[in-house]
Amino acid sequence: MTYEVAALYQFVPLPDFRELKDPLHKLCLDLGVRGTLLLAHEGINGTVAGSHEAIDALMTELRESTLFMGRLDNLELKFSTATEMPFQRMKVRLKKEIVTLGDPQTDPLRRVGTYVTPAEWNRLLDEAGIVLLDTRNDFEVEMGTFEGAVDPRIKRFSEFKDFVKNELDPTQHRKVAMFCTGGIRCEKASSYMLAQGFEEVFHLKGGILKYLEEVPETESRWNGGCFVFDERVALGHGLVEQAGETGQSDE
């Protein structure tokens, strides 16, 4: 059996996120879906797997059911496949943030950088003066990254603020392009950098996964594999599974 894997997120006000936990968990169990979903006041984030029919039904419920009252109408979604179920169980967790930066003033609902589609990404990287940032953790960068990207050498995403403070200067680094696995970390990172005075901040819409899905390998600037937080460990061009070591947590 081939399983469908859905990586999803959306920044959206969910003041009732605590009340959503149990109904969402039951919905996933009823559909035979496994994985992890994070809920916070700022939205939803996670990766789940199941049959094609189950994942399709879950996405429909998230978008259209009375549970979320139409609030998840702009989910950022990436679909891939797995030859074996990549998760052991289903978890729905309550968090302070759906991706942890640890800066209360950073709000992607107010302001984020400029989205760049995978089709436009290579052209942006060829522009003069671009600083290309990999916003992921060090063990992810080691597995693969874009040509010429700066590795911030962080152990967890919350350390990104210190990297910006110590290594970057808005008066010198006027044009920044950044990327991450699925796009969510760049929402926070770009919002943070704009607040720090950086003039032009771009980020890859849909992240590395969308780039690997849409850009032909013959035109790709990507080298290596893309680490994913499930038992597949890494994906390559066309979102094909690659062999690797056991995954680690992004928290």
UniProtKB/TrEMBL annotation:
EC nos: 1.14.-.-
Sample GO molecular function, one term: oxidoreductase activity, acting on paired donors, with incorporation or reduction of molecular oxygen
A Pfam family assignment: Rhodanese
Domain Rhodanese residues, every copy: 126-220
Keyword Transmembrane helix: no
GO biological process per UniProt: tRNA modification
PROSITE patterns listed in its UniProt record: RHODANESE_3 (PS50206)
Keywords assigned by UniProt, alphabetized: Oxidoreductase, Transferase, tRNA processing
Reaction catalyzed: uridine(34) in tRNA + AH2 + O2 = 5-hydroxyuridine(34) in tRNA + A + H2O
Gene3D superfamilies (alphabetical): 3.30.70.100, Rhodanese-like domain
CDD domains: RHOD_YceA
Protein function: Catalyzes oxygen-dependent 5-hydroxyuridine (ho5U) modification at position 34 in tRNAs.
Family membership noted in the UniProt record: Belongs to the TrhO family.
Protein's UniProt name: tRNA uridine(34) hydroxylase
Source organism of the structure: Microvirga tunisiensis
Phylogenetic lineage: Bacteria, Pseudomonadati, Pseudomonadota, Alphaproteobacteria, Hyphomicrobiales
